What does this fold into?
Amino acid sequence: MSLRNLLPLFLMLILSLPVLAQDNETVVVVTHDSFAISEDVLLQFEDETGITVEILRSGDAGQMVNQSILSKNNPLGDVLYGVDNTFLSRALDADIFVPYESPALEFVAEDLQLDDQYRVTPIDFGDVCLNYDVAYFADNGLDLPESLADLAESDYADLLVVENPATSSPGLAFMLATIAEFGTEGDYTFLEYWDELRENGVLVVDGWSEAYYGEFSAPGRDTGTRPLVVSYASSPPVEVYFSDPAPEEAVTGAIVADNMCFRQIEFVGVLDGANNIDGAQQFVDFMLSKTFQEDIPLNMFVFPVLEDAELPEVFVEFVAIPENPAIVDYELIDENREEWIQSWTEVMLR
It folds into this structure.
């Protein structure tokens, strides 16, 4: 058969191949189930860029990262938002991101920028801290604990409820705070500390909702008896924000003494193999804009990373941000997370 006769067959073969054209009109944001932002904020991005935003929720942060790793050769979207420092190393080691240094990073504190290769960009942070029932401590003349070690003292027997680190993000964060404080080696480790908490009557439940709304004794809870709970530094202003009528004084507080809170930082990254790289980069920039950053607190109840972003009044009045949160290197977390959880489980749930 001559080359001339083969030409039609060759053209038919080319035309039958899938079209791999880049979609520049849509950016798909893969995120966790807790993602929330005002509709008019997303519409502003769409109006300014002509790019439509599609949100793909993929379970909790751990599930989202695992799905993105499994689909790295055929990514679920263009941007992944919501990986935090407890899962960051897993995502980076899997090479699911391509580097992108947003110009807006110059307005973000350096201690929030954990990846010097710019594969991920910090967007928000939240501090997991002990929350307390203000009325209980006032009525009983009891001082607030000033350190994690205080919680093992008899004054706080049967007062604390925590979440299981194997099933709860704040539970994991609080366990990491105890690791930062007491370490994993030596005469007194975090496991010895947790054993003392167990002897002191700490209650362990599976998740945050069960702890905060079921066991915590803050006003409005019908069954809660525990005046100390592992929650967030942002929980007290949220209590005020959703109360009707709003109280003049906060009914709960957060304990933000040195090394008693663990800071969770959430990141966004452009996925390797994204259909719309340019649109993904534009969306990263937009997430660091004042418009997006100032919309974060009353939607996801965490703090913006942009240093000049204004907080809503309820946050300004009722929030406390720890100056010295506990720190555990994200690579160390990834290397030891499962072993630490297993050791904790053997001590606490035996």
About this structure: Residues 330-348 form the longest helix (19 residues). The two ends are 77 Å apart (CA to CA). The chain has two domains: 24-126+263-318, 127-261.
